[in-house]
């Protein structure tokens, strides 16, 4: 092979890696969106109770969030290529097996294994791109990756609704299989082994066990608190596990030679503020989508499908701004762009606060949701790039795992908190209408109570976004990437 051919392949390699990771991201995120729509069909098939049906979603969310941090560390130890292929293979095989699940309990166990495979794919995506792309063009690659994630969120409910209603609930999972097989083969052909980026440090077993039970307790409590009640023994036990085990985990991690979570990153302002901002951005955006979907079903009597269409402006904003954000991030300081993105999202939430109500205009609400999505896209690419290009290449999996875990935690916390704020001051009969929608007109007094609840929850999201602007601004100036 000539030198010219080698140079051509070298220039193409980053984009080939992007094609591999894009397919993995597309599959794992489609899996979340499709099941959100198909859940009633799956629940009816297995005669699941309300709580059991909730765990079809919750089991994946819980274990995916916990495993993201763990597998980020393992990728640094054993190599990203190998672990990525294992994760996508596991995700594909389990997608096939779920369609043959004989009962709800087998389904839940398989969903946990699927969550592990999905966590491996997600936590390796950004490090693989960072290893492959030169620093100058990395933001463009990350921007396209965010774009693919947005597409998955956009088409997921449509795909899930089609398969569940036309071909049966099994195809909600089986459609992953052919694409997963293609993805595994393409990854084996394309990805290069890069042993120099891995580490051979000891596996942090105590840290893994503690973080599993601490985060597991927190997610369990926050997810079930609004349903079972905050005084329920299960919820209290989850909160106690988080409160007691978290300080123990932090103490052990600070003293460990090969920690699962490198707490020294938080001693550097640019990392601490970038991570905090990522959590707050995810916290605000996730709740906006949930709140507006519930709002249209509760007060406008929209169907779930119609409500899903109504919140598409958030995804549209992410789709349109992601490529622009990638281009801008290669030329401008991450602190400026990320802070501007959060401010744009905050402006969108402010518009929604004024538009929620009996005399609301969907046009203005759409503008507000679009701004939230656009601001998120403008925030994510430069913020992620600022973390990944300045971290030691051997620890990119750990750094990205921490970032992904904090984003997932933002989604979980915002879901629990926003639902609590919406329903906290409502009588039980109105709480039921929030969760299940309402097919009949409500008295004006009840409408007022519900509107106040939604505005209170949105106001909390606005405060979180404004705090995110401040944490992003104080991160400090951009540092040059370390050689790799």
From TrEMBL:
CDD domains: MFS_MMR_MDR_like
Matches recorded under SUPFAM superfamilies: MFS general substrate transporter
Domain Major facilitator superfamily (MFS) profile: 17-480
Locations listed in the record: Cell membrane
Topology relative to the membrane: Multi-pass membrane protein
InterPro entries: EmrB-like, MFS, MFS_dom, MFS_trans_sf
Membrane-spanning segments: 12-32, 52-71, 83-102, 108-130, 142-165, 171-191, 203-222, 234-252, 273-296, 302-324, 336-356, 362-380, 409-427, 447-474
Keyword flag Nucleotide-binding: no
Keywords: Cell membrane, Membrane, Transmembrane, Transmembrane helix, Transport
Domain of life: Bacteria
PANTHER family listed in its UniProt record: BLR6921 PROTEIN, MAJOR FACILITATOR SUPERFAMILY MULTIDRUG TRANSPORTER MFSC
Protein name, as recorded: MFS transporter
Source species: Alicyclobacillus fastidiosus
């Amino acid at each position: 092979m000539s030198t010219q051919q080698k140079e051509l392949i070298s220039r193409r390699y980053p984009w080939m890696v992007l094609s591999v990771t894009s397919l993995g991201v597309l599959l794992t995120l489609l899996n979340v969106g499709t099941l959100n729509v198909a859940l009633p069909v799956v629940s009816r098939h297995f005669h699941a109770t309300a709580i059991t049906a909730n765990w079809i979603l919750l089991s994946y969310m819980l274990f995916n969030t916990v495993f993201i941090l763990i597998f980020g560390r393992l990728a640094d130890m054993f190599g990203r290529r190998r672990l990525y292929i294992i994760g996508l293979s596991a995700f594909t095989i389990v997608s096939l097996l779920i369609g043959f699940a004989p009962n709800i309990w087998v389904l839940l166990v398989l969903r946990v294994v699927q969550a592990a495979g999905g966590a491996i794919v997600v936590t390796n995506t950004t490090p693989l791109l960072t290893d492959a792309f030169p620093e100058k063009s990395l933001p463009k690659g990350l921007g396209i990756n965010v774009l693919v994630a947005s597409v998955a969120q956009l088409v997921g409910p449509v795909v899930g609704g089609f398969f569940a209603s036309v071909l049966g609930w099994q195809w909600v999972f089986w459609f992953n299989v052919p694409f997963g097989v293609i993805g595994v083969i393409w990854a084996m052909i394309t990805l290069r082994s890069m042993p120099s980026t891995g580490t051979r440090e000891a596996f942090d077993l105590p840290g893994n066990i503690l973080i599993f039970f601490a985060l597991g307790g927190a997610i369990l409590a926050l997810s079930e608190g609004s349903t079972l009640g905050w005084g329920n023994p299960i919820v209290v036990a989850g909160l106690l596990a988080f409160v007691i085990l978290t300080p123990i985990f932090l103490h052990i991690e600070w003293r460990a030679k090969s920690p699962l979570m490198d707490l020294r990153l938080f001693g550097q302002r640019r990392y601490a503020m970038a991570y905090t901002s990522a959590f707050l951005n995810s916290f605000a955006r996730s709740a906006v989508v949930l709140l507006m979907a519930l709002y249209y079903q509760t007060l406008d009597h929209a169907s779930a499908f119609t409500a899903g269409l109504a919140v598409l402006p958030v995804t549209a904003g992410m789709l349109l701004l992601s490529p622009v954000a990638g281009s801008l991030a290669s030329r401008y300081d991450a602190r400026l762009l990320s802070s501007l993105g959060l401010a744009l999202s905050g402006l969108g939430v402010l518009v929604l606060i004024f538009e929620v109500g009996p005399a609301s205009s969907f046009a203005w609400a759409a503008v507000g949701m679009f701004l939230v999505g656009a601001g998120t896209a403008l925030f994510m690419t430069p913020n992620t790039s600022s973390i990944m290009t300045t971290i030691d290449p051997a620890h990119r999996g750990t750094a990205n795992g921490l970032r992904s875990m904090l984003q997932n935690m933002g989604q979980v916390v915002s879901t629990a908190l926003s639902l609590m704020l919406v329903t906290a001051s409502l009588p039980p009969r109105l709480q039921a209408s929030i969760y299940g929608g309402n097919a009949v007109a409500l008295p004006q007094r009840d409408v007022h109570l519900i509107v106040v609840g939604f505005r209170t929850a949105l106001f909390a999201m606005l405060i979180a976004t404004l705090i995110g602007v401040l944490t992003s601004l104080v991160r400090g100036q951009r540092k040059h990437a370390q050689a790799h």
